[in-house]
Amino acid sequence: MTQNPPDMKIRLSADLRRQVEAAAKQNNRTLNSEIVSRLEASFRSPAAPMDDTPARHADLSRLSEKVEWLEQRLLVLEKREK
């Protein structure tokens, strides 16, 4: 016989709860099903980290600098063509 997992209580801010409730309604799910679905999805896609780490900030900063450099380079090349 399959045993049900024990109940688990979580605390959500009022704003987060409203967001999850709205998403559940939009997806035609119960509140519990919406939370489970989102948790499962977060474990399936590790390429999209949810944490806000210093390493991630450094990566974003380097990417931003590279984009800025590329944009400047593009402007120079476009001026040469005129």
What does this structure look like?
There is one protein chain. By secondary structure, the chain is mainly α. It has 2 domains: 12-48; 51-82. Helix content is 67%, strand content 0%. It has helices spanning 14-26, 31-44, 54-81. Helix 1 (14-26) packs across helix 2. The longest helix has 28 residues, at 54-81. The radius of gyration is 22 Å and the shape is elongated. The mean pLDDT is 86.
Sum this structure up briefly.
This protein has 82 residues and is mostly helical. Helices cover 67% and strands 0% of the residues.
Topology, please?
Blueprint: H1 14-26, H2 31-44, H3 54-81
* Major sheet: none
How many helical elements?
Answer: 3
Count of individual domains:
2
* Beta-strand content estimate: under 5%
Distance between the termini: 77 Å
Rg over CA atoms, rounded to whole Å, is 22 Å
Query: Mean pLDDT score, rounded?
Result: 86
**Helicity, as a percent range:** 55-70%
Number of strands: 0
* Poorly predicted residue ranges: none
Shape: elongated
Structural class: mainly alpha
N-to-C SSE string, H for helix and E for strand: HHH
